[in-house]
Amino acid sequence: MMEEKKNETLLEIKELKVSFPVHKKWLPAVDGVSLEIHPGEITGIVGESGSGKSVMSQSILRLRDHDTAVRYEGEILFEGENLLQKPLFRMRDIRGNQISVIFQDPLNSLSPVHTVGNQISEVLILHKQLSKEEAGKRSIQMLKMTGIPDPEACMKKYPFELSGGMQQRVMIAMALACEPKLLIADEPTTALDVTIQEQILHLIRDLNERLGMSVLFITHDMGVVSRICHSVKVMYLGQVVEEAQTQELFENPCHPYTQGLLACIPHLRVERGKELPVIQGSVPSLSNIPEGCHFCTRCRLADDTCRNCPPPLVEISPGHKVKCWKYADGAKEREVTAS
Amino acid sequence: MLKYILKRILSLIPVLFVVSCVIFLVVYMIPGGPATALLGMEATPDQIDALNAELGFDRPFLVQYVDWFTNVLRGDWGESYFLHQTVTSAIAEYFVPTLSLAVFAQIIALILSIPLGILAAYKRGTALDLTCVTASLLGSALPGFLLSMFLMLFFGVYLHWFPVAGYAALSEGLGEHLRYLFLPALSLGIVQAAYLTRMTRSSLLETLYKNYIQTARAKGLKEKKVVMKYALKNGAPVILTAVGQSFGSLITGTIVTETLFNIPGLGMLTLTSINRRDVFVIQGVVIFVTLLYVIVNLIVDILYGFTDPRLRPGRK
Question: By C-alpha distance, which of A81, A61, A49 is closest to A18?
């Protein structure tokens, strides 16, 4: 059954552009991103802070709509339905039910003044119309599934009484309570220390295999990507600059930015005392985006073409696309984006 | 919990000590004593000195203070020179109207401010929000006595709905009691509501940008539920503090309002006692008001624990 579903697309994002008003100008935080997520797949999005990866993930559930003015262009199709066309109150049936999110900082993402049990049961009462008792029982099952010892006691606890790892397990239990088809994990391991990080990654991967749920995994850590994602998209300043299957991307990184990110992972075998390479400079602000290739200000290969004309996203081998003049030239000239 | 309350009550002692020193010193230093006030303008200096000696005001400062403070600790707060009753019974008598007025005004303030504050935060950025903010700013800027006089004029003099001023004790019936208290309570309530509306709104707005609010929205909850369940309970300590402050200022007597509406409350007692240099009453009222203030704060602190488990005394 899993096999035939593989071919369908669960979530398809087409040319998504998300802009926010800054000083009376609309600045795009996400600028023409397209992606497809198939059932059971873990898709990774990698990028530095400010690359637009979080904004993109929040746009899927339209979480930004409540706080600020925001303008969407393009389409976000979830099971064929365009989420951007839906009135905001219709999004409530999807949020937490069909698509769930887990956030970066579990302590601050859980309400400090409500018990764990209350916060998990709430979703079940809301979406599955369970009674309080049924929801409580199911919540305990969910907590057990995420590997929390003594889930009954945990139900009565407040988030601050749990450790960081336990808090993130609670977040995961809450997100998965209604068995969503898609889990958006927005840097779920960033605030955790390394051993806990490993446990949480293992848990997400395990749940993905057991429940067949798709995961959109957002991170800035290439190391994490290699351990969990089936395919990866590398984002820079609101655009996808390279995408491929995880193994292909690690073996054959083509974009200078991807190469830079990979070079930043420390290896045990690297000589002691040798400096770890870094990508020079920092991400330019949205009001200061270069005209040509967005990465040209920090790229060691940049020439005049790069500085003046934006490169297209080109497929250089099946499933491997890159947005870079330096690699587009020799590759099969098949434009993917219609820009 | 009990240990916590006991500890808080013990910590009252140094506070009371400092307050008693200061108030005793201030009263000691103001020119004119009870003797001058008792004997009138025509009294000769000899007569005044004689009365002062009789009342014990010729003794050294420290002796007078220690004498008074030990009596206070024993429960003997002295006797008023003019009211022909003990200070404690005078305070008990004058406190009743003040307490009634404070509770009434606080209820009016809460009924007005909490829903308005929530509404303004829920409809943030809209015309409704702007109206609430402007109204509450206007309410805070308006001097209380002006508002009182306007209410007296409008509801009392023109419409005859409520008595212009005066006070009816609870023994004359609850209806009559509240009818007399309504205008002063409304006047105080509006001013407090203006402050509380702003505090409620800003505390909710602050929590509405927290991460757990995003989590709540990501669950698919209605915005109304997000505000009422998550923002309100998380913002509650700030609102509670503001309510405590507002009640503290009401319960300790409102001199202007009580004088305007001619209500025999603590504020009025303070004012007349100062004019008459009725020293034991002044000192007694200040000590009493300090006690009240500390108790209100203690209650607020205990209530924190109900809204936020992290602030629950005795927990971790």
Answer: A61
DSSP line for chain B: -HHHHHHHHHTHHHHHHHHHHHHHHHHHHSSS-HHHHHH-TT--HHHHHHHHHHHTTTS-HHHHHHHHHHHHHHT---B-SSSSSBHHHHHHHHHHHHHHHHHHHHHHHHHHHHHHHHHHHHTTTSHHHHHHHHHHHHHHHS-HHHHHHHHIIIIIIIS-SS-SS----GGG-HHHHHHHHHHHHHHHHHHHHHHHHHHHHHHHHHHTTSHHHHHHHHTT--HHHIIIIIIHHHHHHHHHHHHHHHHHHHHT--HHHHHHTT--SHHHHHHHHHHHT-HHHHHHHHHHHHHHHHHHHHHHHHHHHHH-GGG-TT--
From the number of C-beta atoms within 10 Å of its C-beta (0-12, 13-18, 19+), residue A315 rates as middle
Sequence-ordered list of residues with C-beta below 8 angstroms from that of A130, at least 6 positions apart, any chain = A121, A124, A138
Among A59, A86, A111, A218, most B C-beta atoms within 10 A, so best to mutate, is A111
Tens digit of pLDDT for each residue in A180-205? 999 999 988 887 888 888 888 988 99
Tokens of residue B26, six digits = 């201030």
Question: How many Cα atoms occupy the beta-carbon half-sphere of B94 within 13 Å?
Answer: 31
Classify domain B94-311 by CATH number: 1.10.3720.10
CB contact under 8 A, A171 and B215: yes
Closest to A258 in 3D by CA, of A33, A1, A51, A31: A51
Task: Give the per-residue SS3 of A195-220.
Answer: HHHHHHHHHHHHHHHHHCCEEEEEEC
Which amino acid, residue A306?
C
* pLDDT tens readout for residues B286-296: 989 988 888 89
B312 close contact with A: CB closer than 8 A: no
Q: Would you list the domain boundaries of chain B?
A: 19-74, 94-311
Task: Provide the pLDDT for residue A271.
Answer: 66
Kindly list the domain boundaries of chain A, sorted by start residue: 108-179
Q: Does B252 touch chain A (CB under 8 A)?
A: no
CA-nearest residue to A60 within chain B is B218
pLDDT tens for each residue of A62-119: 988 887 788 999 999 999 889 999 888 899 999 999 999 998 888 899 999 999 999 9
User: How far does the CA of residue A114 sit from the closest CA of chain B (Å)?
Assistant: 8
Q: Residue A95 carries which DSSP code? A: B
User: Tell me: the pLDDT tens digits for A137-150?
Assistant: 999 999 998 888 89
Regarding an ipTM greater than 0.90, the answer is no
Q: Which residue of B has its CA nearest to A89?
A: B222
A244: its two tokens: 């491929």
What is the C-alpha to C-alpha distance for residues B105 and B226, in angstroms, rounded to an integer? Answer: 30
Place of tokens 């308006």: B142
* Residue A78: exposure state from Cβ atoms within 10 A (0-12, 13-18, ≥19): buried
Give the span between the Cα atoms of B180 and B164, in whole angstroms.
Answer: 8
